[in-house]
Amino acid sequence: MRGYTHLVTDVFEDDPHTPYGFHTRVMGFCPVATHEAGELHCRSRRITLVLDINIAYARLKRQGHWLYRYLTSEWDELSHHRLARRPPPEAEQIAELLRRLPSPTGNRQEPAATVADAYSPG
Questions:
Q1: What pTM was computed for the model?
Q2: Where is pLDDT greater, at 95 or 115?
Q3: Rounded CA gap, 49 and 82, in Å?
């Protein structure tokens, strides 16, 4: 554990192999921005997603989700203890507000995306 608190990733709206649904429904990423143009000179809008690691850990553990079991199967107790600390109520409130925001894709189709995952130190 390196003290990271969030993961940031971008998905591209028109990619036929999008992980957008997996990232948002299963992992718990929240869309925070859309970009019409970028350094990749791509026609597809880029959607930036953010995941609060502690909140995602607690939710997946509470649900007994297969992804939780898969990702943590070889963790020691110290690793579990570090992430099991309850996030402050403000963090849960912010996450809930982000979930209630309208889709950044507006009236367009469900985004299709590829991912270039980037880790963001806290």
A1: 0.62
A2: 95
A3: 24
